[in-house]
Amino acid sequence: MTNKIAYPKAWLFVLPVVALVAFNALIPLMTVVNYSVQETFGNNVFFWEGVRWFEEVLNSERFHASLGRQLTFTGIILSIEIPLGIAIALTMPTRGFWASVCLVLMALPLLIPWNVVGAMWNIFALPEIGLLGQIINGMGIDYNFTQQPIAAWFTTILMDVWHWTSLVVLLAYAGLQSIPDAYYQAAKIDGASGWAVFRYIQLPKMKRVLTIAILLRFMDSFMIYTEPFVLTGGGPGNTTTFLSIDLVKIALGQFDLGPAAAMSLIYFMIVLLLCWVFYTLMMRDEEP
Amino acid sequence: MAKISLQDLRHSYLADPKGDEDWALKHMNVEWSDGGAYALLGPSGCGKTTLLSIISGLLTPTEGRVLFDGAEVTDIPPDRRNIAQVFQFPVVYDTMKVYDNLAFPLRNRGMAEAELDKKVREIAAMLDLEDTLKKRASGLTADGKQKISLGRGLVRSDVNAILFDEPLTVIDPHLKWILRSKLKELHQRIGTTMIYVTHDQTEALTFADQVVVMHEGTVVQIGTPVDLFERPKHTFVGHFIGSPGMNVLPCTLDGEMPYFDGVPVPIEHPAPGNGGAERLEIGVRPEFVSFADTGIPVEIVRLSDVGRYQIVDVRHGEHVIKLLVPEGAELPSESAHIRFDPAYTRVYADGWIMG
Amino acid sequence: MRKVVWLVPTLYILFLMLPIYWLLNMSFKTTNEILGAFTLWPQRFTLDNYIKIFTDPTWYTGYFNSITYVVINTSISVTVALPAAYAFSRYRFLGDKHLFFWLLTNRMAPPAVFALPFFQLYSAVGLFDTHLAVALAHTLFNIPLAVWILEGFMSGVPKELDETAYVDGYSFWRFFLRIFIPTIAAGIGVAAFFCFMFSWVELLLAKTLTSVAAKPIAATMTRTASTAGYELGLLAAAGSLTIIPGAFVIYFVRNYIAKGFALGRV
After folding, report:
1. Domain limits at C14?
2. For C175-191, how does the pLDDT look when each residue is reduced to its tens digit (9 = 90+)?
3. Mean pLDDT, range A106-116, rounded to an integer
4. Sign (positive/negative) of CA torsion A103, A108, A113, A114?
5. Which residue of A97, A235, B128, C213 has the fewest CB atoms within a 10 Å radius of its CB?
6. Residues 6 or more apart in contact with residue B218 via CB below 8 angstroms
């Protein structure tokens, strides 16, 4: 890749994007920040609380627990979905009828509204009346996700893999298609093995696209709400109560807007930090 | 090094070719002699990259055979044909260092490290890449990367031929000249067969000993640059080569003497008959047209100064003819006569030279 | 080894289809049957769920509303993202790295955070309960996505391609439309599909910003899942139907994603 040209007028290219996104982003951000430093007892009366909420949240055991669960969940998800997605993209047909069939079928799980996803997996995995529940119990394993934390985690993870791996597949697949033929031709002439082609041509050329996939999956799984909520309600107990679910419980259930807003901001900072670190690491060997 | 023969070659990209236009490469027999420096010249879409891909093995021809030194290689894949190819865009392995890029083909063939180290350094020296060996390949400029591509082909000592597919397209103009000379120098040093595809006649004519001109899937002429210039076998070659290109004018034949609009145009090697051709033309380059006292009456229309000479556009009826005059030469007044040098005037029937 | 390779996508697709078959299964059953017993296909096959959806105006207008704002959103997002992504990919300018990252940060907050402020914002500008409101609100997360995806693909195209085109005499716009865009076709296909998809499935904001006129399918479906009782059969039928528009979209862009374009130069 060659160097970019310095071109101040490039701002014009970017202006529409900035305008639209900023329009949507600034006011809610201000609102949240506003809430996070105030206390209310209703009736729209607010008292300044400073950093009290932030301190409370950061010190609360409950927060640590849901953060821990969340990090574990996201870690597992990423370690399954990314390699699996790449592997599938590599083995899919590249053109023709079967390529179309694959693409359409793989896209289907992504298109189902998330509450429906949760609901259908709920039934699907129930031991008595669901196909998955019947199969697993039929194999002799005692499986009931409404009562066993391990089963609940297993089901939630399986649901997420089912739901979202295709996103990684589509991105990786599109990325692979964009590699010009000349690279494969040169590799053929050089006598490179399949593994060498993957390591030296495909993987490097997919780097940017994979970065997007990883960042997207990281963010979305970190903020996951609807699907696990509909599937398990955060249970049994609070074993599958991830950050978002906890957040909503506090905000709506207890109507503690202050702590909820503070939590959102802390939450946001964590995601921001981790993404930024990851992004910088991935892009560090591109030129300035 | 090898002699490459293409026998009864024809290629179509369609599964079921019917008419002539369905064939990307029309029927041809071509021989490339061992150690020759060839240019494959033609406009975009004429089939040169297709032909190159068939030679390298990236494409299997619909019909015909490809032979290296008499042995058939038509179905043998590229890595076993021992050819090297340099593409239009620099193809390097970005994540590897330059050294590893050059070593890659040798490592894949199982060569010992000590041995390949010598080879890599030798080639790097030849291509002026020595100071970059430890750098990552992605950090080089476009011409550096093309040199790496070239180097990967040169490290293999058993290379039969090196194929270039418009390799200087992305290089800066002032570097093009340097690289071109380098390629010529390389050819003289190592003597491998080189086939250089381009649509730029300057590149072709300066690099090659023999130029293969292609047009719409057919090999129109193979010859030295001088041959192509002085004796183009097809009007297309006349147009395409030289700047400005050859003048092509309709004519009639009376016996052996061509006539342009009633004026006889004597030529040195008249051709017998016209074999029932539909279209007869005279071709003569502007370099071989001059003003004279008698001959074809014309009027001077335009004058362009190109530095060391001038291009004069003259008109006869509805035909515009170009001729060259030296810088500062006196031009006759408005109406004048021109004559064509008989030694370099040719007659073409349906585009092909007669005689 | 090569023969077995197709096994991977095949197994994956089977894995994907199993719950979908289950969904379809449920959609042809009554809620009682779903909850009452385990049956691989409906014992009492019923089309009631689908009939309800096709005849009840709140349901089918919901579909049209959703399709409308999703199409608007996808068009806007991809269109403004293209020049921005090109700028990020090819040029350096003040604040470019930070701006690029800032775009992504808009996807980092839980959507719940935006519900109330968005309600206030869009009411204030008089766009409440319009398709445009939802379309615009969704650009918050779709534009960054489109820009990032497109930039990723554009950066994979060597700059030499641009320069070759200029040398060959192309004007900027002709180059952009006739050479550059086909080269990144896969990226555009993917970006368009993802924008469509994320906007299509987004429930919270779509519900918050609409009440009657632009009420999307999302709102009606969450109503079904109220505490009064899951109408599972209906939900399943609605869920099955929501797959269809998206399937069309991916089918439409499949040629851009799979190598449908051969860039041969002779």
Report:
1. 1-46
2. 777 778 877 888 888 89
3. 87
4. negative
5. A97
6. B26, B28, B47
Neighbours, chain B (3 or more CB pairs < 8 A): A, C
The verdict on A55 touching B (C-beta cutoff 8 Å) is no
Would you say residue C115 lies in a domain?
A: yes
Does the model's ipTM exceed the 0.90 cut? no
Query: CB–CB of B167/B175 below 8 Å?
Result: no
Q: Which residues of chain C have pLDDT under 70?
A: 1-3, 218-219, 221-230, 258-266
Q: Specify the CATH number for B4-228; select among 3.80.10.10, 3.30.460.10, 3.40.50.300, 3.90.249.10.
A: 3.40.50.300
Do C182 and C101 lie in a common domain? yes
pTM of the model: 0.80
Asked if residue C200 and residue C81 are part of one domain, the reply reads: yes
Q: At what angle do helices A11-36 and C112-124 cross, to 10 degrees?
A: 110
Q: C159 with C216, same domain?
A: yes
For residue A155, what pLDDT is reported? Answer: 92
Q: Based on the fold, state whether residues C10 and C91 are members of the same structural domain.
A: no
Q: How far apart are CA A196 and CA A206, in angstroms?
A: 15
Rounded mean pLDDT, A173-184: 84
pLDDT (tens digit, 9 = 90+) per residue, C228-263?
Answer: 456 778 888 888 888 888 888 888 887 777 653 333
Q: Hey, what amino acid is at C34?
A: I
In the stretch 138-157 of chain A, residues with CB closer than 8 A to chain B read none
- For position B355, what pLDDT does the model report? 65
- For an interface test with C, the pick among A26, A108, A173 (most C C-beta atoms closer than 10 Å) comes out as A108
Q: Which residues of C192-221 are buried (b: 16+ CB within 10 A; e: fewer)?
A: bbbbbbbbbbbbbbbbbbbeeebbbbbbbb
A102/B239 Cα distance (integer angstroms): 51
Q: Is B91's Cβ below 8 Å from some Cβ in A? A: yes
Mutation site for A-interface testing, chosen from B52, B59, B91, B154 by largest number of A Cβ within 10 Å: B91
3-state DSSP assignment of residue A48 = strand
User: What spatial distance separates the first Cα and last Cα of chain A, rounded to whole Å?
Assistant: 12
Domains with residue ranges and CATH for chain A: 60-255 (1.10.3720.10)
Q: Do A170 and C257 touch (CB under 8 A)?
A: yes
DSSP code per residue over C7-57: HHHHHHHHHHHHHHHHHHHHHTS-HHHHHH---SS-SS---HHHHHHHH-H
Tell me which residue in B46, B50, B89 faces C158 most closely, judged by beta carbons: B89
- CA-to-CA distance for B35 and B276, rounded, in angstroms? 41
CB contact under 8 A, A108 and C200: no
Mutate to test the interface with C, among A116, A136, A146, A226 (most CBs of C within 10 A): A116
Does C11 lie at the interface with A, CB-CB under 8 angstroms? no
pLDDT confidence of residue C224? 56
Alpha carbons within 13 A on the beta-carbon side of A144: 6
Q: Report strand pairing: A5-6 vs C91-92.
A: parallel
